[in-house]
Design a protein that fits this description.
single chain, 36% strand, DUF4295, 1 helix, mainly beta
Length: 50
């Protein structure tokens, strides 16, 4: 049987993490793609401003 791997988002430093998913429009085709990144909870607003 296959074993499941469980990822934890908490580190030993105690920071909580959030996954930020942004839709980015391609200038050539006009199609949207999604960009994901993991950021600390206190930096979510900064990540969305980029």
């Amino acid at each position: 049987m296959a074993k499941k791997v469980v990822a934890t988002l908490k580190t030993s430093s105690g920071k909580d993490w959030a996954k930020v998913i942004k839709a980015v429009k391609s200038p050539k085709t006009g199609a949207y793609t999604f960009r994901e990144e993991m950021v600390p909870v206190d930096q979510v607003q900064d990540a969305l401003k980029k």
